[in-house]
Amino acid sequence: MASASSLYENGRHVWTVAHEAERGLYDLSIYGDPPARFAELRDKLHKQQMEAGGENADVDYVFDVPLDLAAELCGYRHDRWKFDWGEPAFSRLEAGEDRV
Fold first, then answer.
1. Residues 6+ away with beta carbon under 8 Å from 38
2. Res 7: pLDDT
3. Pair 34, 17: CB distance under 8 Å
4. Is position 15 within any domain?
5. If you compute the radius of gyration of the chain from its CA atoms, what whole number of angstroms results?
6. 24 in any annotated domain
7. Which of 31, 38, 40, 41 could form a disulfide with 16 if both were Cys (CB 3.0 to 4.6 A apart)?
8. Does residue 94 belong to any structural domain of this protein?
9. Residues with Cβ < 8 Å from 17, sequence gap 6 or more?
10. Any idea what the Cα angle at residue 22 is, between residues 19 and 24, rounded to 5°?
11. CA torsion 39→68→16→32, rounded to 10°?
12. Could you tell me which residues are beta bridge partners of residue 17?
């Protein structure tokens, strides 16, 4: 199980926060300088992980650190279907279709 979020600005990599459970339930790789909110999210979810049994828990709360960070910054999370701004609408794009 892995999760990550990144920021690129004007084609330049600014930061990435990544979690790979295979490296341990507390694994977080940080590249660049993530937003200040990152530390608060990390601490909150590390605490939940500890309370659930740490490395021996049947749940991986740290997986949500990159996802929650991205959701707070852009207002969207891939596994949610209802938001304050409404529901996302997706279209299926078939190969060979011309769309304008």
1. 17, 30, 65, 69
2. 94
3. yes
4. yes
5. 16
6. yes
7. 31
8. no
9. 4, 5, 6, 28, 29, 30, 34, 38, 65, 66, 69
10. 70
11. -30
12. 5, 30
What's the per-residue H, E or C state across 26-87? Answer: CCCEEEECCCCHHHHHHHHHHHHHHHCCHHHCCCCHHHHHHHHHHHHHHCCCCCCCCECCEC
pLDDT for residue 87: 77
Considering its fold, how many domains does the chain have in total?
1
Q: Which pLDDT does position 1 carry in this prediction?
A: 87
Are 37 and 7 in contact by the 8 Å Cβ rule? The answer is no
Q: Tell me the three state secondary structure of residue 14.
A: strand
Domain that residue 42 falls in: 2-74
> Across the beta sheet with 29-32, what order do the strands follow?
2-9, 12-20, 29-32
CB-based contacts of 30: which residues, under 8 Å, 6+ apart?
A: 15, 16, 17, 38
β-pair partners for 58: none
Length of the chain, please?
100
77-100 average pLDDT score: 73
In a domain, 6, yes or no: yes
